[in-house]
Design brief:
96 residues, mainly alpha, 2 domains
Amino acid sequence: MVGTMVIVAESMMETWEQKIKDRKGSIEIEVTEDMRIITADTISRTAFGSSYKKGQQVFEGIDKLRSTFVEASNNPLFWMSGYRFASLLIIVETFA
């Protein structure tokens, strides 16, 4: 697992180095998205045996499902008996 983490980190470092070379000097790099990609890539490689890019649709779907569920659960009606089932149907229809 550590070896996989090193491979993923080295790949990101190479990407950053290429950005620096392309701009011929120093640049400011926003690492928030890159750290998310490193994390997702490490999980993909260790758990599923494939890179993040190959499983990107799965991660995007999980993120969309999470945000849809959070949005639905913020509605007070979500917590009423029976309405929760209807809310989950809405979430499932989102991905159909």
